[in-house]
TrEMBL record:
GO terms for cellular component: extracellular region; plasma membrane. Keywords: Cell adhesion, Cell membrane, Disulfide bond, Glycoprotein, Host-virus interaction, Immunoglobulin domain, Membrane, Repeat, Secreted, Signal, Transmembrane, Transmembrane helix, Ubl conjugation. Residues 25-105, 223-307, 412-503 form the Ig-like domain. PROSITE patterns: IG_LIKE (PS50835). Residues 1-24 form the signal peptide. It is a single-pass type I membrane protein. This is Vascular cell adhesion protein 1. It comes from the Eukaryota. Cell adhesion glycoprotein predominantly expressed on the surface of endothelial cells that plays an important role in immune surveillance and inflammation. Acts as a major regulator of leukocyte adhesion to the endothelium through interaction with different types of integrins. During inflammatory responses, binds ligands on the surface of activated endothelial cells to initiate the activation of calcium channels and the plasma membrane-associated small GTPase RAC1 leading to leukocyte transendothelial migration. GO terms for molecular function: integrin binding. The chain crosses the membrane at residues 519-539.
Length: 558
């Protein structure tokens, strides 16, 4: 039985050798001719033969550089493995197979690239409405960078596109970047910044390798228009209380902090609430209180001075409203807790001019503290700004004294001017082709400077607020952007408005558009040219018939 097995094995081996010898000696590689590998990855090149039972293999580069890889041969297969792939592996590799006297070679070109990470988006700082910001799109560790393309978009709008076509003087990983500076607007909130990088490394594939990073825009507004309201007054009695409320505009909504200014100028923090209440006031509580509105972008501050008085108090000046140029306002001068009030005299002055005085000569029917007042209505003018209202109270309580007891209060006048002379400029025109951009700029005069508010008039007549900037920018206009846009200038004294109609024309209608300016020019030329012709005609006619010339007449007399 063992003899038969040996005989069978020998016959089989001989038969296999005869079949192998009968086949042609061939060599094949995988990948067939080209391999694309990323730096840091692992790549294997495989060489196989047919038609030879025990081939021998060898590997080399076409320029006889080191292989920078490991070779493993077994039977009719040999594998060259490069792990990790580096710049030293960018060669044409040759696999040589030898079978007795026969020798075959086949090459595989190894090309490398590096595109390992998504792009990075960096901002030069927080985005503040109206303030320039630089955004950088950074693509790290790229090779070969001369095939890199980077796009930076805001929403669907392409802000910048760049191809890096510089010559590569050496093999190295490069970090490439693209920068754009723009001015954020409130409408940018929620839009996406998109940094898209494409590496065109495989000429066989139509689609390049692509990576993308997005960043949602958060636009901020620095604190502004910080306002303090004081109740009941900034002048207080000892033992009384006061509530001060502070507000500030911004995005995100500013945090409110209250402090008191010390004698050395430093601030003593009191509260982190919008409302600060002080009770049982004493003389030493007098001073300057500071409200600050703070967010990530900056801060805005407002100061108010509190004066705590012992009894009796100085007169109190109150206005019926903010003084407005040309608009009547009533000023009231109150003298609290007076006794005996029949000896009280009140004078109201504007600067050095006496506006009104009054003596209270009524009879007293009982002993009590009384509050007396004097009122005067006048019409402020711009010349009143900077002047001081003076309320002077005199109590003639000692007939033996020449000078009466006297107290006074003052209040500077700031005369407001209601918004007026509002004007709107539209660039390039109030009639534009669909897809173009339009800037509408509004200005208004007033004191204090009016706040500008842009709105759009809806079909029902209501106004839809759009922007608080002087310039309203419409990017890539659409037909539905047509309509009435309203600019309002607003301040403490009132408001003024101006409307402008914006017409967005479809692209197919833009060629038929005939501007009003061209129409005026056409009409003017049609009138001027006939007029010139008539003048020339009558002039020639006068020369033919003879005309009177003062110069010629003088010559004849000489």
């Amino acid at each position: 039985m063992p003899g038969k097995m040996v005989l069978f094995f020998g016959v089989s081996t001989l038969l296999w050798m005869m079949i192998a010898a009968s086949q042609a000696f061939k060599i094949e590689t995988f990948p067939e001719s080209r391999s694309l590998a990323q730096i840091g990855d692992s790549v294997s090149l495989t060489c196989t033969t047919t038609g030879c039972a025990s081939p021998t293999f060898s590997w080399r580069t076409q320029i006889d550089s080191p292989l920078n890889g490991k070779v493993r041969s077994e039977g009719t297969t040999s594998t060259l493995t490069m792990d990790p792939v580096s710049f030293e592996n960018e060669h044409s590799y040759l696999c040589t197979a030898t079978c007795e006297s026969k020798k075959l070679e086949k090459g595989i070109q190894v090309e490398i690239y590096s595109f390992p990470k998504d792009p990075e988006i960096h901002l030069s700082g927080p985005l503040e409405v109206g303030e320039p910001i630089t955004v950088k799109c950074l693509v790290p560790d790229v090779y070969p960078f001369d095939r890199l393309e980077v796009d930076l978009l805001k929403g669907d709008y392409l802000m910048k596109k760049q191809d890096f076509l510089e010559d590569m003087d050496r093999k190295s990983l490069e970090t490439k970047s693209l920068e754009v500076t723009f001015i954020p607007v409130i409408e940018d909130i929620g839009k996406l910044l998109v940094c898209r990088a494409k590496l065109h490394i495989d000429e066989i594939d139509s689609e390049p390798k692509e990576r993308e990073t997005t960043k949602e825009l958060q636009v901020y507004i620095s604190p502004k228009n910080t306002v303090i309201s004081v109740n009941p007054s900034t002048r207080l009695q000892e033992g009384g209380s006061v509530t001060m409320t502070c507000s500030s505009e911004g995005l995100p909504v500013p945090e409110i902090f209250w402090s008191k200014k010390q004698d050395n100028g430093n601030l003593q923090r009191l509260s982190g609430n919008a409302t600060l209440t002080l009770i049982a006031m004493r003389m030493e509580d007098s001073g300057i209180y500071v409200c600050e509105g703070v967010n990530q972008i900056g801060k805005s501050r407002k100061e108010v001075e509190l004066i705590v008085q012992a009894f009796p108090r100085d007169p109190e000046i109150e206005l019926s409203g903010p003084p407005v140029n040309g608009r009547p306002v009533t000023v009231s001068c109150k003298v609290p807790n007076v006794y005996p009030f029949d000896r009280l005299e009140i004078e109201l002055l504007k600067g050095e001019t006496m506006m009104k005085n009054k003596e209270f000569l009524e009879e007293e029917d009982k002993k009590s503290l009384e509050t007396k007042s004097l009122e005067m209505t006048f019409i402020p003018t711009m010349e009143d700004t900077g002047k001081v209202l003076v309320c002077q109270a005199k109590l003639h309580i000692d007939e033996m004294e020449f000078e009466p007891k006297q107290r006074q209060s003052t209040q500077p006048l700031f005369v407001n001017v209601a918004p007026r002379d509002i004007a709107v400029w539209v660039s390039p025109s109030s009639i534009v082709e669909e897809g173009r951009s339009v800037n509408m700029t509004c200005s208004s005069y007033g004191l204090p400077a009016p706040k500008i508010l842009w709105s759009r008039q809806l079909k029902n007549g209501d106004l839809q607020p759009l922007s608080e900037n002087t310039t309203l920018a419409l990017i890539s206009t659409k037909l539905e952007d047509s309509g009435i846009y309203v600019c309002e200038g607003i301040n403490l004294a009132g408001k003024s408005r101006k409307e402008v109609e914006l017409v967005i024309q479809g692209r197919e209608n833009s060629k038929d558009y005939f501007s009003p300016e061209l129409l005026v020019l056409y009409c003017a030329s049609s009138l001027i040219i006939p007029a010139i012709g008539m003048i020339i005609y009558f002039a020639r006619k006068a020369n033919m018939k003879g005309s009177y010339s003062l110069v010629e007449a003088q010559k004849s007399k000489v």
